[in-house]
Every structure is written in C-alpha cells, then in structure tokens.
Specification:
Elements (H helix, E strand, L loop, with lengths): L1 E9 L9 H16 L1 H9 L7 E8 L3 E2 L5 H4 L6 H6 L2 E2 L1 H6 L16 E8 L1 E2 L4 E2 L7 E8 L3 E7 L6 H14 L12 E9 L8 E4 L12 E3 L2 E4 L17 E4 L4 E3 L10 E3 L17 E6 L5
Antiparallel strand pairs: 1-9, 1-10, 2-9, 3-4, 5-8, 6-7, 11-15, 11-17, 12-15, 13-14, 16-17
C-alpha cells in the first residue's frame, strides 16, 4: 500500500471530531457518488481480507499523539500525573527513538483547537411547548474549532489510485464532513499532499493512528484506551433507521507488540467489521488502523 499525508486547513467549525473511521465512511459515500455504486461494491467486497483504503485520525501538523502506555514505559514521573496527561504531542522521530519525555502540551505547539457545547431546548411545534409540555427539555450540541491538521491515507493503488483518493477527499472538503454540513459545518481546504514512507520493518512495536478492532488477533503486548463507536448511516440512509450497532474499539495511539515485523506493503493492523447494521447488512466499518513503528518494547 502507498501512504499519503494530506494537510488540511478547516474553513468552518466542525460538528463531529475528525476520526479516521468516520472519515472512511464518508469517503465510501464519495466513491459511491463520484464513481458509481458498482465501483464501491467491488471495493468493499474484498475489504474484509484486503483493504483498499485505511484512514487515520487528524493530528496537529507535524505531530503525532503520545502512545497510550503506562507511565513506567513512558519513563514519566508518577508524581506528576496531572502534568503528564497534558503532554500529548511528539514528532515521528521522537516516537521512533522512544523520547517520550519530550512530549509537548497543546500550548507548546500553539494548538488553537477549541471545543464548546451550546445548550438548546427542544420545542414541540404542534403544542409550542418544550418536550411534552411538562417543563424544560434541554440538550447540548458540540462544536469544534480546529487548526491545520495532517491526515494519513493508506491506499492500494491497484484498485484505488491517488487521483481517485484526491478527488474523493476534495468532494468531502466541499460538501462538508460530519454532522450539520447543511448549515455550513465541516468544510476544509486541502493545502498539501505528500507521499510518505514509513519503514514498518525496523520494529515489532507499533502505535495506531485511528481506532481499530483487536478482536481475534494475537499480540505479545497491547496497551489501549477503549473507544465506543455509536455509528450512524449518512446521506440518503440517514433519515430512516439510521443507527448502527455499537462497536467497542481500541482508540487511537494504542500500542501493540507483535512477534514479527509488519511487511512494508501492509503498514496496518486490525480487521474490517461486518454485520453492524440490521437494515443494511452489506455495511462495513473500518476496524483497521495505519501503524507507525516506535521504539522496541521490552
């Protein structure tokens, strides 16, 4: 697989966090609209055994997250737990060398991301009362203001080439990512595309760049935070019986140690997730994750 790094510049606020599995789903819809349903069906038919595309989360330009490992592996001062939690950003080279003590806080990399919650009140337009008319019925909506981000895409160019990827990504950039795109959220510009090479053969220890499914796989060691995905169908499937089955995943920045190095042409771990929708059984979810080699765990 070939690996590409897209640097994007958000031009609006976002209603949904930029996570790799969600972006993969939207790219599938982009393929459906740009190249036809038959093309998407062909690509997804082999996805469980041979993925054509894997998408990472979005990270601050030039940085990656600190691995989610115990403090003893990170060589952190256990008396400074609160401070350690704020130090989350490292360069690729620092991860390779295991220089976790160099992790930076948001302010150290001038990260301007902000999250806010706006409280609304549900109104019944038949009765013009809130809720059932018995009182206050509030709910909150999240909004994300983001700076420039790097997103990594691994593609099998024999089936889905770089031009198709770029056209699909620009389709989403114009249409919008995530929820509330109809009111202008989720827009961005693609300001740089570079082919990136990661030598997966230099280690047997890896960090993931998106949520993934470890189920049924063998690891000598694994460290992760759990992540529950409450998925929802999009576009024309979003209006009736839209919700998928909940999924339990290992979150981004998980760490695994394998018994062998990964081959250069397969820089990923995980599996495709199937049977996740009662109403659309052909639906698949990205349970794969691109990985980067880190300093060997002992």
């Amino acid at each position: 697989m070939k690996l590409y790094k897209y640097t994007i510049k958000p031009t609006s606020s976002f209603g949904t966090p930029l996570k790799g599995d969600t972006l993969f789903g939207q790219l599938c819809w982009a393929v459906r609209y740009l190249y036809g349903e038959e093309t998407l069906t062909t690509l997804l038919n082999e996805y469980a055994s041979d993925p054509f595309l894997i998408v990472s989360d979005a990270f601050p330009t030039g940085y990656l997250p600190k691995p989610k490992m115990p403090s003893s592996y990170l060589k952190e001062d256990t008396k400074q737990k609160k401070e350690n939690r704020k130090k989350v950003w490292l360069t690729y080279q620092e991860l390779q060398k295991g220089e976790y003590h160099l992790a930076r806080k948001d302010k150290d990399i001038a990260l301007l991301d902000k999250q806010s919650t706006t409280i609304h009140n549900a109104l019944n337009y038949l009765t013009f009362h809130t809720g059932d008319g018995d009182g206050f019925d509030p709910y909150g909506t999240d909004e994300y203001i983001l700076g420039e981000k790097d997103i990594y895409f691994a593609i099998d160019e024999n089936r889905f080439d770089k031009d198709q990827l770029e056209k699909s990504a620009r389709f989403i950039a114009t249409l919008g990512y995530g929820k509330d795109t109809t009111i202008g959220k989720g827009r961005f510009e693609i300001i740089n595309i570079t082919e990136t090479e990661i030598d997966t053969t230099q280690s047997t220890s890896y960090m993931t760049l998106s949520p993934f499914s470890p189920k049924g796989q063998e690891f000598e060691k694994i460290f992760y935070d759990p992540f529950v995905r409450f998925g929802k169908h999009g576009y024309e499937r979003a209006h009736q019986k839209a919700f998928k089955k909940p999924l339990l995943l290992a979150d981004s920045a998980s760490v695994v140690k394998l018994s062998h190095s990964l081959p250069q042409e397969k820089p990923y771990i995980g599996k495709a997730l199937e049977n996740i929708s009662d109403n659309h059984p052909e639906t698949k979810h990205q349970g794969y994750s691109i990985v980067i080699p880190i300093k060997e765990l002992t």
